[in-house]
Amino acid sequence: TLPAEITIYEVGARDGLQNEKAVVPADVKAQFIRQLAAAGLGTIETTSFVNPQWVPQLADAAEVLELLGDEGRGPRRPVLVPNERGMDRALEAGVGAIAIFGSATETFARKNLNRTVDESIEMFRPVVARAREAGMWVRAYVSMCFGDPWEGPVPVEQVVDVSQRLMDLGCDQLSLGDTIGVATSGHVNRLLDALGDKGIGDEVIGVHFHDTYGQALSNTLVALRHGVTVVDSSTGGLGGCPYAKSATGNLATEDLVWAMEGAGVRTGVDLEKLLSTSLWMTQHLGRPSPSAVVRALGTA
Ligand code: HMG
Ligand code: MG
Q1: In this structure, which residue's CA is closest to atom 49 in ligand 1?
Q2: Interface confidence: ipTM more than 0.90
Protein backbone atom coordinates (compact mmCIF):
# COMPACT_ATOMS: atom_id res chain seq x y z
CA THR A 1 0.00 0.00 0.00
CA LEU A 2 0.96 3.62 -0.51
CA PRO A 3 1.16 6.21 2.28
CA ALA A 4 -1.74 8.67 2.68
CA GLU A 5 0.61 11.58 2.26
CA ILE A 6 4.16 12.21 1.06
CA THR A 7 6.66 15.04 1.43
CA ILE A 8 8.09 16.29 -1.81
CA TYR A 9 11.65 17.59 -1.48
CA GLU A 10 11.93 19.93 -4.47
CA VAL A 11 15.41 20.13 -6.02
CA GLY A 12 14.72 22.03 -9.26
CA ALA A 13 16.36 25.24 -8.13
CA ARG A 14 19.54 23.39 -7.12
CA ASP A 15 19.94 20.05 -8.95
CA GLY A 16 17.98 21.48 -11.88
CA LEU A 17 19.75 24.76 -12.38
CA GLN A 18 23.26 23.56 -11.49
CA ASN A 19 23.35 21.62 -14.73
CA GLU A 20 21.96 24.14 -17.20
CA LYS A 21 24.26 25.69 -19.75
CA ALA A 22 22.49 29.00 -19.40
CA VAL A 23 23.24 30.76 -16.15
CA VAL A 24 19.88 31.86 -14.80
CA PRO A 25 19.95 35.35 -13.23
CA ALA A 26 19.57 35.50 -9.45
CA ASP A 27 16.24 37.33 -9.59
CA VAL A 28 14.77 34.65 -11.88
CA LYS A 29 15.97 31.97 -9.46
CA ALA A 30 14.35 33.80 -6.55
CA GLN A 31 11.13 34.17 -8.50
CA PHE A 32 11.23 30.45 -9.38
CA ILE A 33 11.56 29.49 -5.70
CA ARG A 34 8.73 31.84 -4.68
CA GLN A 35 6.46 30.34 -7.32
CA LEU A 36 7.34 26.79 -6.26
CA ALA A 37 6.33 27.68 -2.70
CA ALA A 38 3.13 29.27 -3.98
CA ALA A 39 2.34 26.04 -5.84
CA GLY A 40 2.39 24.24 -2.49
CA LEU A 41 5.89 22.80 -2.29
CA GLY A 42 6.86 22.87 1.38
CA THR A 43 10.49 21.81 1.17
CA ILE A 44 12.65 23.51 -1.42
CA GLU A 45 16.41 23.11 -1.80
CA THR A 46 17.37 26.62 -2.79
CA THR A 47 21.02 26.60 -3.88
CA SER A 48 24.57 25.41 -3.17
CA PHE A 49 27.44 26.90 -1.24
CA VAL A 50 30.03 24.87 -3.16
CA ASN A 51 33.22 26.12 -4.75
CA PRO A 52 31.87 28.63 -7.34
CA GLN A 53 34.58 27.56 -9.75
CA TRP A 54 33.16 24.06 -9.73
CA VAL A 55 29.53 25.13 -10.22
CA PRO A 56 29.41 28.66 -11.66
CA GLN A 57 25.65 28.31 -12.25
CA LEU A 58 25.06 28.64 -8.50
CA ALA A 59 27.83 31.10 -7.67
CA ASP A 60 25.11 33.63 -6.82
CA ALA A 61 23.85 31.62 -3.82
CA ALA A 62 24.14 34.48 -1.32
CA GLU A 63 22.40 36.88 -3.68
CA VAL A 64 19.49 34.49 -4.26
CA LEU A 65 18.97 34.11 -0.51
CA GLU A 66 19.25 37.85 -0.03
CA LEU A 67 16.51 38.38 -2.63
CA LEU A 68 14.30 35.76 -0.98
CA GLY A 69 14.59 37.14 2.55
CA ASP A 70 12.68 35.01 5.07
CA GLU A 71 11.13 32.95 2.27
CA GLY A 72 14.53 31.42 1.54
CA ARG A 73 15.42 30.50 5.09
CA GLY A 74 14.31 28.10 7.81
CA PRO A 75 14.35 24.34 8.31
CA ARG A 76 12.62 23.62 5.00
CA ARG A 77 14.96 25.61 2.77
CA PRO A 78 18.14 23.50 2.71
CA VAL A 79 21.28 24.39 0.76
CA LEU A 80 24.20 22.16 -0.24
CA VAL A 81 27.34 22.65 1.84
CA PRO A 82 30.45 20.51 1.20
CA ASN A 83 33.05 22.03 3.51
CA GLU A 84 33.80 24.62 6.18
CA ARG A 85 34.23 27.43 3.68
CA GLY A 86 30.72 26.64 2.42
CA MET A 87 29.48 26.55 6.01
CA ASP A 88 30.91 30.02 6.67
CA ARG A 89 28.99 31.31 3.68
CA ALA A 90 25.79 29.48 4.66
CA LEU A 91 25.90 30.86 8.21
CA GLU A 92 26.53 34.33 6.89
CA ALA A 93 23.47 33.98 4.66
CA GLY A 94 21.38 32.86 7.65
CA VAL A 95 20.33 29.44 6.33
CA GLY A 96 18.45 27.07 8.64
CA ALA A 97 19.12 23.72 6.96
CA ILE A 98 21.95 22.15 5.00
CA ALA A 99 22.72 19.06 2.98
CA ILE A 100 26.09 17.39 2.77
CA PHE A 101 26.67 15.08 -0.18
CA GLY A 102 28.83 11.99 -0.03
CA SER A 103 29.52 9.31 -2.61
CA ALA A 104 29.19 5.55 -2.42
CA THR A 105 32.08 5.18 -4.88
CA GLU A 106 35.70 6.33 -4.83
CA THR A 107 35.70 7.51 -8.44
CA PHE A 108 32.76 9.85 -7.99
CA ALA A 109 34.06 11.13 -4.63
CA ARG A 110 37.21 12.13 -6.49
CA LYS A 111 35.37 13.69 -9.43
CA ASN A 112 32.69 15.52 -7.47
CA LEU A 113 34.51 16.44 -4.26
CA ASN A 114 38.18 16.16 -5.16
CA ARG A 115 38.56 13.79 -2.19
CA THR A 116 38.57 10.08 -1.36
CA VAL A 117 35.46 8.74 0.40
CA ASP A 118 37.33 8.82 3.75
CA GLU A 119 38.61 12.34 3.18
CA SER A 120 35.17 13.58 2.19
CA ILE A 121 33.63 12.19 5.39
CA GLU A 122 36.31 14.00 7.39
CA MET A 123 35.52 17.15 5.39
CA PHE A 124 31.82 16.84 6.36
CA ARG A 125 32.43 16.12 10.05
CA PRO A 126 33.03 19.72 11.22
CA VAL A 127 30.32 20.96 8.83
CA VAL A 128 27.68 18.78 10.48
CA ALA A 129 28.98 19.60 13.96
CA ARG A 130 28.70 23.32 13.30
CA ALA A 131 25.27 22.90 11.73
CA ARG A 132 24.00 21.03 14.80
CA GLU A 133 25.46 23.67 17.07
CA ALA A 134 23.56 26.30 15.09
CA GLY A 135 20.35 24.26 15.42
CA MET A 136 20.12 23.46 11.72
CA TRP A 137 18.37 20.50 10.12
CA VAL A 138 20.88 18.32 8.26
CA ARG A 139 20.42 16.00 5.31
CA ALA A 140 23.06 13.61 3.93
CA TYR A 141 22.99 12.61 0.30
CA VAL A 142 24.71 9.49 -0.93
CA SER A 143 25.40 9.55 -4.65
CA MET A 144 25.87 6.55 -6.96
CA CYS A 145 23.70 4.31 -4.78
CA PHE A 146 22.87 1.95 -7.62
CA GLY A 147 25.44 2.33 -10.34
CA ASP A 148 28.42 4.49 -11.21
CA PRO A 149 29.40 5.41 -14.78
CA TRP A 150 33.04 4.53 -14.12
CA GLU A 151 32.74 1.64 -11.64
CA GLY A 152 29.56 -0.05 -12.85
CA PRO A 153 26.98 -1.55 -10.47
CA VAL A 154 27.57 -0.54 -6.86
CA PRO A 155 27.30 -3.25 -4.18
CA VAL A 156 24.52 -2.66 -1.65
CA GLU A 157 26.94 -3.22 1.28
CA GLN A 158 29.15 -0.40 0.03
CA VAL A 159 26.19 2.00 -0.02
CA VAL A 160 25.09 0.90 3.45
CA ASP A 161 28.59 1.45 4.83
CA VAL A 162 28.88 5.02 3.50
CA SER A 163 25.30 5.75 4.58
CA GLN A 164 26.03 4.64 8.14
CA ARG A 165 29.16 6.75 8.30
CA LEU A 166 27.29 9.83 7.05
CA MET A 167 24.35 9.33 9.41
CA ASP A 168 26.78 8.78 12.32
CA LEU A 169 28.01 12.35 11.79
CA GLY A 170 24.62 13.42 13.17
CA CYS A 171 22.37 13.86 10.14
CA ASP A 172 18.57 13.90 10.28
CA GLN A 173 17.82 12.43 6.89
CA LEU A 174 19.51 10.28 4.25
CA SER A 175 18.76 10.80 0.58
CA LEU A 176 19.58 7.90 -1.72
CA GLY A 177 20.91 9.33 -4.95
CA ASP A 178 20.51 7.40 -8.18
CA THR A 179 22.75 9.95 -9.81
CA ILE A 180 22.75 8.40 -13.27
CA GLY A 181 19.28 6.89 -13.20
CA VAL A 182 20.19 3.20 -13.47
CA ALA A 183 18.15 1.90 -10.52
CA THR A 184 15.40 -0.64 -11.04
CA SER A 185 12.67 -1.78 -8.66
CA GLY A 186 14.26 -4.94 -7.23
CA HIS A 187 17.48 -3.09 -6.50
CA VAL A 188 15.57 -0.34 -4.68
CA ASN A 189 13.90 -2.91 -2.42
CA ARG A 190 17.21 -4.66 -1.70
CA LEU A 191 18.92 -1.41 -0.73
CA LEU A 192 16.06 -0.28 1.52
CA ASP A 193 15.97 -3.70 3.20
CA ALA A 194 19.74 -3.65 3.78
CA LEU A 195 19.63 -0.14 5.27
CA GLY A 196 16.73 -1.12 7.52
CA ASP A 197 18.72 -4.12 8.79
CA LYS A 198 21.41 -1.70 9.95
CA GLY A 199 18.96 0.58 11.72
CA ILE A 200 18.51 3.17 8.95
CA GLY A 201 14.75 2.90 8.57
CA ASP A 202 12.40 4.24 5.92
CA GLU A 203 11.34 7.08 8.26
CA VAL A 204 14.71 8.82 7.84
CA ILE A 205 15.13 8.07 4.13
CA GLY A 206 14.39 10.13 1.06
CA VAL A 207 14.74 8.81 -2.49
CA HIS A 208 16.41 10.81 -5.24
CA PHE A 209 15.93 9.28 -8.67
CA HIS A 210 17.19 10.66 -11.94
CA ASP A 211 15.11 9.65 -14.94
CA THR A 212 17.79 8.62 -17.44
CA TYR A 213 16.14 5.25 -18.15
CA GLY A 214 12.58 6.41 -17.50
CA GLN A 215 12.45 4.37 -14.27
CA ALA A 216 12.32 7.21 -11.73
CA LEU A 217 8.59 7.07 -11.10
CA SER A 218 8.35 3.29 -10.88
CA ASN A 219 11.34 3.24 -8.52
CA THR A 220 9.64 5.90 -6.41
CA LEU A 221 6.44 3.85 -6.17
CA VAL A 222 8.46 0.86 -5.01
CA ALA A 223 10.14 2.99 -2.33
CA LEU A 224 6.78 4.38 -1.18
CA ARG A 225 5.33 0.86 -0.91
CA HIS A 226 8.38 -0.07 1.14
CA GLY A 227 7.60 2.71 3.61
CA VAL A 228 9.55 5.77 2.44
CA THR A 229 7.56 9.03 2.49
CA VAL A 230 10.09 11.64 1.32
CA VAL A 231 10.62 11.95 -2.44
CA ASP A 232 13.05 14.24 -4.24
CA SER A 233 11.91 15.64 -7.57
CA SER A 234 12.58 18.62 -9.76
CA THR A 235 9.99 20.82 -11.40
CA GLY A 236 9.97 20.26 -15.15
CA GLY A 237 12.41 17.35 -14.72
CA LEU A 238 15.39 19.68 -14.86
CA GLY A 239 18.67 18.54 -13.50
CA GLY A 240 21.72 16.38 -13.49
CA CYS A 241 25.17 16.51 -12.06
CA PRO A 242 27.88 18.21 -14.12
CA TYR A 243 30.45 15.85 -12.59
CA ALA A 244 28.57 12.63 -13.39
CA LYS A 245 28.79 11.36 -16.93
CA SER A 246 25.31 10.51 -18.33
CA ALA A 247 23.28 12.06 -15.52
CA THR A 248 20.03 13.53 -16.78
CA GLY A 249 17.19 15.29 -15.04
CA ASN A 250 15.51 14.22 -11.84
CA LEU A 251 12.07 12.70 -11.61
CA ALA A 252 9.84 15.59 -12.68
CA THR A 253 7.73 16.97 -9.84
CA GLU A 254 4.78 17.09 -12.25
CA ASP A 255 5.12 13.36 -12.99
CA LEU A 256 5.17 12.65 -9.27
CA VAL A 257 2.19 14.87 -8.44
CA TRP A 258 0.19 13.48 -11.37
CA ALA A 259 0.81 9.90 -10.20
CA MET A 260 0.06 10.73 -6.54
CA GLU A 261 -3.18 12.50 -7.43
CA GLY A 262 -4.28 9.42 -9.33
CA ALA A 263 -3.42 7.21 -6.37
CA GLY A 264 -5.12 9.43 -3.78
CA VAL A 265 -1.86 10.32 -2.03
CA ARG A 266 -1.70 13.89 -0.69
CA THR A 267 1.22 16.10 -1.78
CA GLY A 268 -0.15 19.58 -1.06
CA VAL A 269 0.87 20.67 -4.56
CA ASP A 270 -1.38 22.47 -7.03
CA LEU A 271 -0.47 20.85 -10.36
CA GLU A 272 -1.75 23.70 -12.52
CA LYS A 273 0.27 26.32 -10.68
CA LEU A 274 3.31 24.10 -10.78
CA LEU A 275 2.92 23.56 -14.49
CA SER A 276 2.75 27.24 -15.30
CA THR A 277 5.91 27.80 -13.23
CA SER A 278 7.65 25.02 -15.03
CA LEU A 279 6.66 26.30 -18.48
CA TRP A 280 7.83 29.77 -17.48
CA MET A 281 11.22 28.35 -16.40
CA THR A 282 11.69 26.30 -19.57
CA GLN A 283 11.18 29.51 -21.55
CA HIS A 284 14.07 31.02 -19.61
CA LEU A 285 16.20 27.98 -20.29
CA GLY A 286 15.30 27.92 -23.95
CA ARG A 287 14.51 24.21 -24.09
CA PRO A 288 11.40 22.11 -23.54
CA SER A 289 10.87 20.03 -20.41
CA PRO A 290 11.76 16.34 -20.77
CA SER A 291 8.70 15.42 -18.70
CA ALA A 292 5.90 13.60 -20.54
CA VAL A 293 3.34 14.98 -18.08
CA VAL A 294 4.50 18.54 -18.73
CA ARG A 295 4.24 17.97 -22.47
CA ALA A 296 0.82 16.38 -22.21
CA LEU A 297 -0.70 18.98 -19.89
CA GLY A 298 1.27 21.94 -21.18
CA THR A 299 -0.19 21.83 -24.66
CA ALA A 300 -3.75 20.94 -23.64
P1 HMG B 1 38.79 21.93 -3.89
O2 HMG B 1 39.15 22.63 -5.14
O3 HMG B 1 39.51 20.66 -3.54
O4 HMG B 1 38.80 22.91 -2.64
O5 HMG B 1 37.25 21.61 -3.98
P6 HMG B 1 39.98 23.41 -1.76
O7 HMG B 1 39.57 23.12 -0.36
O8 HMG B 1 41.28 22.90 -2.27
O9 HMG B 1 39.92 24.99 -2.01
C10 HMG B 1 40.33 25.58 -3.23
C11 HMG B 1 39.84 27.03 -3.31
O12 HMG B 1 38.42 27.01 -3.43
C13 HMG B 1 40.14 27.86 -2.06
O14 HMG B 1 40.34 29.20 -2.50
C15 HMG B 1 38.87 27.79 -1.28
O16 HMG B 1 38.66 28.89 -0.42
C17 HMG B 1 37.82 27.79 -2.38
P18 HMG B 1 41.80 29.86 -2.58
O19 HMG B 1 42.36 29.68 -1.21
O20 HMG B 1 42.54 29.01 -3.61
O21 HMG B 1 41.52 31.25 -3.01
N22 HMG B 1 36.63 27.08 -1.91
C23 HMG B 1 35.42 27.64 -1.79
N24 HMG B 1 34.94 28.86 -2.08
C25 HMG B 1 33.64 29.09 -1.83
N26 HMG B 1 32.80 28.17 -1.31
C27 HMG B 1 33.25 26.93 -1.03
C28 HMG B 1 34.61 26.64 -1.28
N29 HMG B 1 35.33 25.52 -1.10
C30 HMG B 1 36.57 25.81 -1.48
N31 HMG B 1 32.42 26.00 -0.51
C32 HMG B 1 35.09 21.08 -3.12
C33 HMG B 1 36.57 20.80 -3.03
C34 HMG B 1 34.38 20.03 -2.32
C35 HMG B 1 34.83 22.44 -2.51
C36 HMG B 1 34.67 21.06 -4.61
O37 HMG B 1 35.00 19.82 -5.13
C38 HMG B 1 33.21 21.33 -4.81
O39 HMG B 1 32.74 22.44 -4.64
N40 HMG B 1 32.43 20.29 -5.22
C41 HMG B 1 31.00 20.40 -5.41
C42 HMG B 1 30.59 19.88 -6.76
C43 HMG B 1 29.09 19.98 -6.89
O44 HMG B 1 28.49 20.92 -6.44
N45 HMG B 1 28.47 18.95 -7.52
C46 HMG B 1 27.06 18.93 -7.69
C47 HMG B 1 26.29 18.67 -6.44
S48 HMG B 1 26.25 16.94 -5.98
C49 HMG B 1 24.93 16.29 -6.90
O50 HMG B 1 24.42 16.94 -7.78
C51 HMG B 1 24.39 14.93 -6.53
C52 HMG B 1 23.04 14.98 -5.79
O53 HMG B 1 22.05 15.62 -6.58
C54 HMG B 1 22.59 13.57 -5.44
C55 HMG B 1 22.62 12.60 -6.63
O56 HMG B 1 21.97 12.86 -7.66
O57 HMG B 1 23.32 11.59 -6.47
C58 HMG B 1 23.18 15.77 -4.48
MG1 MG C 1 20.93 14.66 -8.15
Answers
A1: 241
A2: yes
